[in-house]
Design a protein that fits this description.
Distance between the termini: 41 Å
Helix content: 40-55%
Number of helices: 4
Order of helices and strands: HEEHHH
Structural class: alpha+beta
Strand content: 15-25%
Length: 71
Amino acid sequence: MRPTVQPLACGRASLRPAAVAEVPPRVEYALTPLGQSLSDTVTHVVRWVQEHQVEIARNREAFEGTEPAAS
């Protein structure tokens, strides 16, 4: 299992690996019921970030003291 995915699949809490018999070998991942229970929450967070992207960028630039990106 890839190190970047391993923490998410620890104890199979949210991801279920499935080996695929192909050459080259590969692994597909599916959400467990516990992982699926986060779907609506993650969707809402992604939507919120998309809706507030400009404001988030402005605040980050102000915090970091950088010039705003040209639009």
